[in-house]
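Hi R.,

Here's the chain you asked about this morning:
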Amino acid sequence: QVQLVESGGDLVQPGGSLRLSCTTSGSIFRINAMGWYRQAPGKQRELVAVIGNDGSAKYADSVLGRFSISRNTAKNAVDLLMDDLKPEDTAVYYCGLASSKDSWPISWGQGTQVTVSS
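And here is the predicted structure, written out as tokens:
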């Protein structure tokens, strides 16, 4: 059984930065991608960024150029650096493990709250 633990969520002013981290424990056999997803109140969960075992990444258009995902394959951990945060980035951010960058995650963390507000 795999476990994912997110950290780093906080209240930040518009234009600010945050780094989210996700660490995993347990077997992640057949996991080829790790990513970050978010869910705002009243909205569906959506992809933010995902990175494959080969280091290639995919981003949502809304965060392209502002967010950067990185992965420590040896530690089975993934970070999300978020710059120039906007109020519309406010959401619960979840770490997810998937079989590919194009697949929906099969394992989830508990989520961490990011609030962007002045």
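One quick note: The mean pLDDT is 94.

Cheers,
M.
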